[in-house]
Amino acid sequence: MIAFLVIAFALLTDRIAGEPRRGHPLVLFGGLADWLRAVLTRRGQGDSVLAGGVAVLLLLAAPLVVLLWCWWLLPAGVWLLLEVLGLYLAIALRSLQEHAKAVMRPLEAGQLNEARQALSMIVSRDTAGLDAEAVAAATTESVLENGADAVFASLFWYLLAGLPGVIVHRLANTLDAMWGYRTPELNRFGRVAARLDDVLNYLPARLTALTYMLCGNAPNALRCWREQAEGWDSPNAGPVMAAGAGALAVRLGGPAPYHGAPRHRPALGHGGAASAETIGAAIRLVQRGVLLWMMLILAGGLAWSLITVAG
């Protein structure tokens, strides 16, 4: 029940306050990661797996030491407030919705250039030449994938390992986003961060795919999950994207431009073409998923309380 209340207050805080506009811990952490990599690069270790592993270890260990210190020194009530604050900063559900709607609204109004510009803020692909369907598809993919990474994975790790689990997951996810690209500069250095993120997201990704299936077109989602997930280049994004596309009954995936060149990606989903309405449907799918998780957590907490009392 305490976990349910912490999650409920974290979601409520996110709903009311949204993501901090300045001084977000993940932004500060990213700056620290850039500095550490620059130091290692100057020492001739810029493309070393060992250097990347040491950097990941240092960047993850430091906040855990601080948390351990806080756990020993702070009263229980203050620690619970810290858990609410930490989970609130990790979830970013409102931010996900705001960024998606910033694309959806101009797309609905036929303002394609404005929609492309808003999309460029949330994806790494080239957006200048995308048509309306491609813009809607890219935004929908972003909602589905970030729903897994920023929302459901954070809830999963909080339930499994408390605030330390949430922090390790979000920091590893941030390092993967910064260093996990297979470029000449990062191919070896970012390998540890990428593999750690894959491990930490393995179960949350499949629970997210199951959530999308239960909250949408379940038969279509299951079919897409089974047939299309393995074809995706990421072992965790594949189930999430395939099940999400199937749940929405929309066509996603396919070739996309990155850094001036097209990248082949398999098709995802069975259904109609993506549109502005699809973006709204994806947002509602994530919202229904959060509600389902909250209901299950509450039911589990009540059942455990009854068992404890009866015992």
TrEMBL record:
Any one GO CC term of the record: plasma membrane
Compartment(s): Cell membrane
Tree of life domain: Bacteria
Bilayer topology: Multi-pass membrane protein
Sequence intervals crossing the membrane: 49-71, 150-172, 290-310
Major subcellular site: membrane
Metabolic or biological pathway, per its Swiss-Prot or TrEMBL entry: Cofactor biosynthesis; adenosylcobalamin biosynthesis
UniProt entry keywords in alphabetical sequence: Cell membrane, Cobalamin biosynthesis, Ligase, Membrane, Transmembrane, Transmembrane helix
Single Gene Ontology BP annotation: cobalamin biosynthetic process
A Pfam family of this chain: CobD_Cbib
GO molecular function terms noted in the UniProt entry: ABC-type vitamin B12 transporter activity; ligase activity; threonine-phosphate decarboxylase activity
Family classification: Belongs to the CobD/CbiB family.
Function: Converts cobyric acid to cobinamide by the addition of aminopropanol on the F carboxylic group.
Protein name: Cobalamin biosynthesis protein CobD
Species assigned in the record: Natronocella acetinitrilica
Organism classification: Bacteria, Pseudomonadati, Pseudomonadota, Gammaproteobacteria, Chromatiales
Recorded name of the encoding gene: cobD
